[in-house]
Amino acid sequence: MTQRWYDKDPTLSMAISLLHNASSCHQEMAARYMFKVMDAMHLLDIEALRTKEDRVRFMFPGFRRSKFEAHARHLVELLKHLPYEHQQTLAVQLINYIYILDCGLSDFPLPEETVYSELAQPESAG
């Protein structure tokens, strides 16, 4: 059996699975949230996202009739091309956000300082 690219890590695999199994509304909300996180980390190239918009046709292997929102498809495709450490950080963020949505806490204020803020800061020499 061939491994999917996100199966290399259980956290990443869980994040993609939770996104896939979320309702279309939650998929879109989670994708939009993750784009904001990625933008704060300076990992989001808006122009690249626009040019890929029509070309990205991500389908989960084994889920031929997958109903995957466009924003979520783009998110998964962008995650695929990020370095491993960023994939890890974003996977944890995605899992936490989907949990918040599933618990009905979408109005719950998210902390300003999150894990990704450390990665977004340039390392100081010293």
Shape: globular
Q: Which stretches are poorly predicted, pLDDT < 50 over at least 5 residues?
A: 53-65, 111-126
Element pattern in H and E? HHHHHH
Secondary-structure content class: mainly alpha
Major β-sheet profile: none
| Average pLDDT | 75
Q: What level of helicity do the residues show?
A: 55-70%
Task: Give the N-terminus to C-terminus distance in angstroms.
Answer: 47 Å
Notes on the structure:
The protein has one domain. The termini are far apart. The radius of gyration is 15 Å and the shape is globular. α1 packs across α5, α2 packs across α4 and α2 packs across α5. The C terminus is likely disordered. The protein is built from six helices and no strands. It is mainly alpha-helical and 126 residues long.
Short recap of the structure:
Helix content is 57%, strand content 0%.
Primary descriptors:
126 residues; mainly alpha; globular; 6 helices
List the helices and strands and how they pair.
Layout: H1 10-21, H2 24-40, H3 46-52, H4 70-80, H5 84-102, H6 115-120
